[in-house]
Amino acid sequence: SIRLVNRWLDDEGRLGGSSIYDQIELPANADEAAMDLFCAIVLCATQISGEEFGSAVAQLVPENLQTALETDAIPQQHFSKQQYARMLSMYGSVCAKLSLLTRKPVWLHESATSFNLAAQLADTDYPVELAVFRLHLAVVLSSMGERTRNMDCLRKAADSCRISGETFQADETPIQSITAHARLGAIYYRSSVLDCQTESCRLEVEAFQEALAICDREKWPDQWADVMNGLGQNLQLFGRLTRNPDLMKWSIKVSISALEVQTLEHNPLGWARTQNNIGTSRYLLGSLESDADQLSLAIDNFKGAEEVFHQRHQESMVELVMRNRRAAEREMKELSS
Question: pLDDT digits over 238-249, tens only?
């Protein structure tokens, strides 16, 4: 058995990410197909990016799970049930990463199939590994649901993520527990964006608060800031749907707290995203209460975010922030006329 470790503590919460509890099972007499898949697993656990890399890695990976079994890339006959589940999960991780690198949705479907089967076959004597399989599955289903605007897919993602979070113990697997609760909050956020139901917002607030109850700011500052930023983004949507200024003010307060960790020097893109979130909340609050001061502050937030995104060549984010800034400027002009 081989474990992969990277610098991102909460990597299993990302599409194509790996967990310290993931294991590669490789028979001593592994053939070429199994070794190719092993190489792909290792490469996908690194920070490679781009379609060119994706196309090269895809040459090492069977196009679907059935082919992986037929070619002995996953030599099922050499494995115990748990070892087989582990390799199904690793194949799922590779497929998830390839969906990002190649921009081909078919890899997402293969990933979901593999993670789902791994969760079904996993030995309950390994509860943490089973929870990791379910967390991986939740991330993939969430991505599929978001891309296709499929509420059923998002509900399945939430179910898988919630079960995963209930399994992790905060005193034994704190990072995984934080990650599962935060990911559940993000899934509920995507659901509320699609169905505009405030119940999803309420559930998301609960999920992020559960993550914050575990997350020690001094020990895991980056994870704490990510959770705070996620909570702030949800409160913004919650406030917009309910036209509740108190929720928008709460969103601003939470997001400003996140900036104490996500500084411009430490995390420029994180800082810019948070500035955009704060600006959006201030714009909504200023529009709701006809408050020129809030609109002015929002414009400043958008300008700061726009500058960083432009410097970092994040063109899609530049366009988004520009639209937000212009909307706030139009609102200011109407108030002053």
Answer: 999 999 999 999
